[in-house]
Amino acid sequence: MNIDRMQTPELLSLNKFNVDEEEPHIVLDKEICARCEDKPCLVVCSAGLYKLDKSGGISFDYAGCLECGTCRIMCKDKGIVKWVYPRGTFGVSFRHG
Amino acid sequence: MGDENFDAIVIGAGPAGIACAYTLAKQGKTVLVIERGDSAGSKNVTGGRFYTYALEMVDRGLTAEAALERKVTHEQIMMLSGNRAISVDYYDPSFNRVGGTAQSFTILRAVFDPWFAGKAEEMGATVVCGIRVDDVIEKEGKIVGVIAGGDEMYANVVVAADGVNSFIAQKAGLIKDIESHAVAVGVKEIIELPAQTIEQRFNLKSEEGAARLILGCTEGIHGGGFLYTNKESISLGAVFMPEEVARHGRSLPEMFQEFKMHPAICPLLEGGKTVEYGGHLVAEEGYRGIPKKLYREGFLVCGEAAGFVVNLGYTIRGLDLAVLSGLAAAKAILEAASPAKVGPAYMQQLEAVKLLPIMRALDGFTDALDIPNLFGTYPKVAADLFQKLYAVDGSVPDHLRKQIWGVVKGNKLTLRQLFADGIRGMKAL
User: Fold this and answer.
1) Mind listing the pLDDT tens digit for each residue in A12-30?
2) Are B133 and B41 in contact (CB under 8 A)?
3) With an 8 Å Cβ cutoff, are B131 and A88 in contact?
4) Most A-contacting residue of B46, B185, B239 (CB-CB within 10 A), to test interface
5) pLDDT cut 70: percent of chain B above it
6) CATH of domain B181-283
């Protein structure tokens, strides 16, 4: 197998996740996000989960979150209205770490 | 868990929490460790390397049983610039005497942490995984327990060893949420390769390992790369200051992939298979990043939650300091005559186990590593110099002094700037 550039969806598909469908651990106020000029989340997320949608707003899926916390501390306009660790047993489970 | 009142509840089954639980349980104390991951280590990502002296301080002989990867025999520094690379490889057998305990090992957290948690259980601690602690319980100004998984649990002391984001220390009112300049964000791929291939590529004997830190792979952003050889995999990662990533404007995962494909890195991984991708924050401010208060009555903060990490540029220490802090917390709990004295005793123990003295002595590295040219310009200057030295094409070479000056000017550096950075570095260290 050759080493190659990998996109984050492919990288994340290698990890073990148990997604909490009932209780998202990160919640955005998309109106605040749409007004945010800098949108640092687009580049700092280690999992590349923050994307621009067609209307220039933020689209985000917490399912592949690595739970690092970078988006929370970089979110200047406080569009991230909730950031907690997933409930016990949910979220990413590293098999190597 | 009923109405039991534990001697201690430890939040987080990482090396800090487990060192604390192990030490307390060994002395007959009742300890409950609450871990939010499925198993200990399943939420953790490290570079990483573990210095064994800390484990030996918890209990002599523990290292021999520990689930570690390879003993580090090759200490390496690498500088990248464009498609060029400079490598330094320091080999020193005295760090790994036959029959003695090796100084440090490479480590995988999802392997090491469950082993260590198991040792604490053998001592009598209870380790419960898959439960997130949501809050602390306060009574008359003291922390008396935690709320986790809808249950209330009580203890004489609550030890927060819940890692860099430490929400629990925030809930206890000891710290505010992290400031973005205080941390860096790291990403890492685990790339599986046969042991023999790793040994051939890194010039290692069986069980030997390499630890490599890399400068000049972050597009000028504060940070760097790392590469650790595990038994049958390579941990390749890079760490970036998130504020600068935001200003730089290129996605962090993309920059990391660029680094992975560098012509001096990629061949080391060839034929390997990526099996995991991790991301984590790491405290970057060393001694000055430690919160002003690490305790209140009934409550102690340990490990990275307390900012116990130092980045020296050529190595990074966090896991050993975590273990020391857990040990210090346990000793404080064991020796304090009354609950009110546990906190002050913890501060004394952090001195006695040398954690704070070590961090104080290394404080200057935070300034030295704050020199912006270190992450792009200086690796390029170094590579340009090597290029001048090694390029032979039959032409008459300039005087060496002139060549050096040419490189300095070519990188738009002034003598003044070089001097200023030099002084800054010297002063810091």
Assistant:
1) 999 999 999 999 999 999 9
2) no
3) yes
4) B185
5) 99
6) 3.30.9.90
pLDDT tens, B59-68? 999 999 999 9
Q: Given a cut of 90, is residue A2 above it in pLDDT?
A: no
B132·A87 Cβ contact <8 A: yes
CB contact B189 to A (< 8 Å): yes
User: Is the domain covering A8-85 a CATH 3.30.1360.180 domain?
Assistant: no
pLDDT tens-place string over residues B209-237: 999 999 999 999 999 999 999 999 999 99
Restricting to B residues 23-52, those with a Cβ less than 8 Å away from any Cβ of A are 36-39, 41-46
Residue B9: CB partners within 8 Å, gap ≥ 6? Answer: B31, B32, B33, B34, B145, B146, B153, B154, B155, B157, B158, B159
The CA–CA distances, whole Å, from B347 to A36, B219, B300, B341, B416 equal: 43, 40, 10, 10, 43
Model pTM score: 0.96
Predicted complex ipTM: 0.97
Domain limits, chain A: 8-85
Contact of A25 with chain B, judged by CB distance below 8 Å, is answered with no
Q: What does DSSP say about strands B31-35 and B84-91: parallel, antiparallel, or unpaired?
A: unpaired
Domain formed by B5-69+107-175+291-353, architecture: 3-Layer(bba) Sandwich (3.50)
A11, B189: Cβ pair inside 8 Å? yes
A to B CB pairs, distance under 8 Å? 159
